[in-house]
Please model this.
Amino acid sequence: MAAAQKNLALREPVWVQWLLTTVALAFLVLFLVIPLITVFYEAFRQGLGVYWAAITEPDAQSAIRLTLLTVAIAVPINTLFGIAAAWAITKHRFRGKQFLTTLIDLPFAVSPIVAGLIYLLLYGAQGWWGGWLIENDLRVVFAVPGIVLVIMFGTLPFVARELIPHMQEQGTDFEEAAVSLGASGLQTFFKVTLPAIKWSLLYGIILCNARAMGEFGAVTVVSGNIRGETNTMPLHVEVLYNEYQLAAAFAVASLLAGLALVTIVLKTLIEWKTERDRRLDEISFQAHYEASLQAQKQDPRP
Amino acid sequence: MSIAVRNVKKTFGSFHALDDLSLDIDSGELVALLGPSGCGKTTLLRIIAGLEQADSGQVLFEGEDATDIHVRKRQVGFVFQHYALFRHMTVFENVAFGLKVRPRAVRPSKAEIAERVHELLNLVQLDWLADRMPNQLSGGQRQRIALARALAVEPKVLLLDEPFGALDAKVRMELRRWLRRLHDELHVTSVFVTHDQEEAMEVSDRVVVMNRGRIEQLGAPAEIYDHPANPFVYEFIGQVNKLAGRISNGAVEFGGIRANLGIPDLADAESVITYVRPHEIDVRPGQEAAEGWLPATVETSSVAGPTLRLDTRLTATGEEVHVEIRRGHAEHDSLRQGDVVQLKPLNPRVFAPPSAA
Amino acid sequence: MSTAVLPTRAPWGILPRRRQRSALPGFGLTLGFTLSYLGFIVLLPIIALFIKAMELSLSEIWDIATEPRAMASYRLSFGGSFIAASINMVFGLIVAWVLVRYQFPGKKLIDALVDLPFALPTAVAGIALTGLYASTGWIGQYFEPFGIRIAYTQIGVIIALTFIGLPFVVRIVQPVLQDLEAEVEEAAASLGASRWQTFARVLFPALLPALLTGFALAFARAVGEFGSVIFIAGNIPFDTEITPLLIFIKLEQYDFTGAAALGAVMLVAAFVLLLVINMLQAWASTRSRRA
Model:
């Protein structure tokens, strides 16, 4: 786009361009770049030894293990949910579709604290099922299941929200073509739908994963902060920070920040790839168009 | 295989896409569903395919009820308007898809699949493109690959949704002639949807003219053009002049001028509309009135190839009448603005004006 | 997930139209799973909250929801979110404009980095911002001599809320700006409009629905935010205590009904915001279709 702005009539004076670019960059540097650098700077300030010790001490290790465990449960389930919801919503017609889409968005608008609260009220000792859970010696809140549940709640929209617009745009022609050629439902999904949506699906999963690992407020409410047992990585960061172990806190935080960076890099790669594919589609169609007019005449007739 | 559609109804919300529609298609026929957009032609095609379910009514294949047979088992070949070629598969893989997804027990061997695919690619004259990706093909090539893919499963019926709709005018012409030849070779019962009357006329054995979820007329192309059943078909197919008038004593009156148009058994009516094609009007220069001729004034005269086009205005009613005659007669070629002529409708039809609905 | 028990027909309430089964398979299975999962994970706990809140009479809920400490927290949560979303609307528009229209080195890197607040855990953002804006921090130290404190004040809260809402306006305005046809601007220029007039009268109205949608999303996200704020806020009642924190404090004091009452207020606010966002998005999409 910007390259196409050669038209003088559509250009701002140079000083305006400079001003706007400077303002935008200053804003982004102030709010994004510097905080990001801070995390890594503080993490490594006292040397690699301190860093290494901070992320290998038993409590940190157990927080990392718990985080990976919760993510290993929550992300696949939300991925399945996202695929199922997107399939139902984009490949079928039914009433209430808009309402359903809004419902999927709901966890996004709910405060993490409220998310934790509602689970506490349902599964806690005073909650609806609290009595039954205690009788059967099942612990949900202040234990791993509660953490997994609130993370599932908080990251529920991400895969679905990535897939729905993309699958909507593709319509149902490809699937209908596959089915009319005799493909079964699973064959249609794995051979036709999945290859077409794989990049948005991948990004949805990555984003869901990043958010799941970083979930803080809701986990704070239901975890009970039992050190070495129910602390996830973000909670461990908080504990260290409140104990003024800044280097250690930032060391663990830097792992999460690294994950965020990986997420962004992958997103960018995926965007470049899909953008390139789309442009390739358009360009080659143009290029082959003229040739095809010729080819139609020169086709060897059998 | 013959197709029969029996009393099919389909609504989308409050919109009646198909309104108690019945249709018979003979085995081996090539039939066009023609109509303006929103007339229900694509819905009908999709119901025949099993991609859409009718609210009520039946679809019979060779006399057997296929209404509840899933599209997967219906053995129809469906060609989509935008081809729906699988983008991540090569041309070969696209055509082979229908064979490869068969249950293991009835799936042909790899070699058989390859042979069949190359056979089909030869049939559509694109074997040399087997290893290309769909995005490396032109529109016309994509459409032919889509057709080959549909034919791979040996469908009993071939259904095409606006097959040439997305193509350039020139490619379109070549491709529809090619489709006609291909059909003559294969003789598989085929139905295609189009909104282009020329396309329907040129390619099909029979044309089904549809409007508002109903069939307006069904017949061979020439029959439809020469004998439109009603005002809608008259207006939808080809050009037509509409002249308002009334009928008394077997003759039509246009603003006080009576003309016996030679139509037998005209009942008296206060308000009728006479339909007459531009090229079915005789022109005689001069003021001299005669029985069956209507005086008019020439407004413009223009030349289009071998045809002379006259835009005239009827003296009696002030209505515009377009006339097309062959050039080469000095008395016609010399007509200029303001000249008075006499017009004689040949082969006119009289209909009651369409009701407000 | 046992697929056998899931209904093969659509459950009540979201019925497919009569005999309008799609030719594509899996409707009952996927919709059944979607609804069961949503019901279990989202609806059931939310209903539990409202029922818990119902243990109180309406006037009791009103009293809890409007007690001075709660009111002060709303002022900060909603007011601070409004300011933060406004900042994001202004700077987000500039960032989107610069990223779409101008070329400069490192643009792709900067563009990618805009998503950071989506991906960075809020607790990490919280400690990083606190470290920066504390009176000894890289940025805070320059304000200290002027007697301006940022961390542990309401300004700090607004900074955290700005950070977490930053991507929304940029990411929603960007594609709209990209799709604007140059012809429209050329038309305006050919009719004699100055560059500024073209922006104010042609471009800005076209961007407005997207801007407001981005604003609403940033606002909605900020109102409920917890992790990034509690580190930088100082959490002093009546001053720098946000509503989610007040709920958390009530929970720590085992005041479940009080927490539920405030939670219900926040949930209703979330519903209303979602509704507004939906309407804005519908408006934005009709606007772009008309163009």
